[in-house]
């Protein structure tokens, strides 16, 4: 039952994060949809780590190059997702208020993705791995 509660709270967090992203785009004061490009970063961010977990054998306690590369690529994607709205705001493509809403949505969405890997990342009975 704890897995269901975690899944529901993670989906609620994802919905709140997407709401902040949509508010940064669709409010009549801002009315620019450029921040929706961040959806690509949300989709791409867990992919390197998921691939490395499939490839890497976890019996090693030492760190290996594949896992380190996956963490590096994921960090690059996350930093780019935080940098893009700031670049848009500096170039006056979007307003600074929209940038603040989008950055708040980024914090919530990436926190939700991190929470998913912390909750469902172990190899126990209730897991999304095969």
From TrEMBL:
TM stretches of this protein: 7-30, 36-56, 68-88, 94-120
Listed InterPro entries: Vps55/LEPROT
Keyword Membrane: yes
Chief place of localization: membrane
Topology in the lipid bilayer: Multi-pass membrane protein
Keyword Transmembrane helix: yes
Keyword line: Membrane, Transmembrane, Transmembrane helix
Subcellular locations according to the entry: Membrane
Gene Ontology terms: biological process: late endosome to vacuole transport via multivesicular body sorting pathway; negative regulation of growth hormone receptor signaling pathway
Domain of life: Eukaryota
Cellular compartments per GO CC: endosome; membrane
Pfam families noted in UniProt: Vps55 (PF04133)
Family listed: Belongs to the OB-RGRP/VPS55 family.
PANTHER family to which the protein is assigned, alphabetical: LEPTIN RECEPTOR OVERLAPPING TRANSCRIPT-LIKE 1 (PTHR12050:SF4), LEPTIN RECEPTOR-RELATED (PTHR12050)
Job of this protein: Negatively regulates growth hormone (GH) receptor cell surface expression in liver. May play a role in liver resistance to GH during periods of reduced nutrient availability.
Protein's name in the database: Leptin receptor overlapping transcript-like 1
Species per Swiss-Prot/TrEMBL record: Sparus aurata (Gilthead sea bream)
